[in-house]
Amino acid sequence: MSRVRTIARVLGILLALAVTAGAALGVVRLVLPADDSAPVRRQLAFLRAALDGGAAEDAQRMFPEGWFFLHALYGLTQVDLGRDEPPAERAEEIREAGWALAQLETDAGRAPFDAGLVPAYGVFYRGWTNWLRGGLLSLQTDRDPEQVRRFRADSAQLAAAFDAAPTPFLEAYPRQAWPVDSTVAAASLRLHDHLFPPAYELTRIRWLAQVRQRLDPATGLLPHRVDPLDGAPAEVARGTSQSMINRFLVDLDPEFARQQYLRFRSLFVTTPLWLGPGVREYPEGTDGRGDVDSGPLVRGISLSATVVTLGAARVQGDGRLAGALGNVGDVVGVPLDTPGTRRYAFGVLPVGDAFVAWSKTARPWVAGVQPPPEPDRSGWWRLPLLLLLVAVGAAPWVLFRVLTGRRPPRPVRTGPSRAGRTDPPPR
Prior knowledge:
Layout: H1 2-31, H2 40-52, H3 55-60, H4 66-83, H5 91-104, H6 107-110, H7 122-139, H8 145-164, H9 179-195, H10 201-212, E1 225-226, E2 233-235, H11 239-248, H12 254-268, E3 269-270, E4 278-279, E5 297-298, E6 301-302, H13 303-315, H14 319-332, E7 336-337, E8 342-343, H15 350-360, H16 382-404
Antiparallel strand pairs: 1-2, 3-4, 5-6, 7-8
Helix pairs in contact: 1-14, 1-16, 2-4, 2-15, 4-5, 4-7, 4-15, 5-7, 7-8, 7-9, 8-9, 9-11, 11-12, 11-13, 13-14, 13-15
């Protein structure tokens, strides 16, 4: 029995050490900068291996654009990293971004989309592909003539579709339109005019004017989904689309983008249970169910919206919110590091890693660095989460002491013993 107790005691100590070490690591990740792009190259190494191993096919089984997004975000993150490098040192980023773009233009990349839409394959496919192609061209000093031709041709088709439509929100799928998809496509036209002689300034101005006429009346933000015929709001603004809209809108109109961002931040960014910021899927005061876009909701918080908002905060110069979201993500996401890779949630969801990497490298491609907005949270936001981590780290030792501590001995009588007592003398 004593041997069993010894083994149990050793195992208990090891478990307590593991929990305490995990809590200590959480404290470190909570206080060190976490929204920078330093570990992103190791994330991309993991993602490339995952893509080669079939991760895109797994993502496609989870949601309709899974295959597309995993490749697109991998390529876009390579572009962001390449823009920080001197032109002579961008060969790897150009090669990998070009590889990702080539995957999007395969039959597998186009499979979920309808070739009969205007533009062909819909605004989602054409907008994201055009944005990545423009990003690739922005890295090249000697631009590939074929990529230039495709970028100009696709930009012209997108602009023609916007100019001819009675709504600023084109169809992504037959009879379905989401403003976020058209925002990406419109931003790609702005990128065209940044890289080449301007051709689409009137399209941009018209598009923004039409957008302002079709804001969600409940929030003053771009709606999540609209009527494809006239662009009228069909669904209230939601966190998953707002976080991405705010990533791109800054390159179209920085002033309008700042107004939208501040409104989004006030309605969607919250602090559940005082344990760090998160992003709601539905605006404050409104409840709804999670879906394939948002993922499961925890107290109304969408993990995907929270991750993408990190990128939106970065392009808006909101370092305090970006840093807070990065810190919380590094605590909750439990990143696993090896000498050459990094993966979140043990790498079970590579598309999640792709969104994290893309968000941590975010910066405007056209508008340039934005002035920081007024902060919306105290610098003491970490304190409740720090106290929780300290409590978690201490709890195993308290429990271990309670379960294994010996019962204290009975108190010893300090009075004279019976044997030592002297009887009074007889009378």
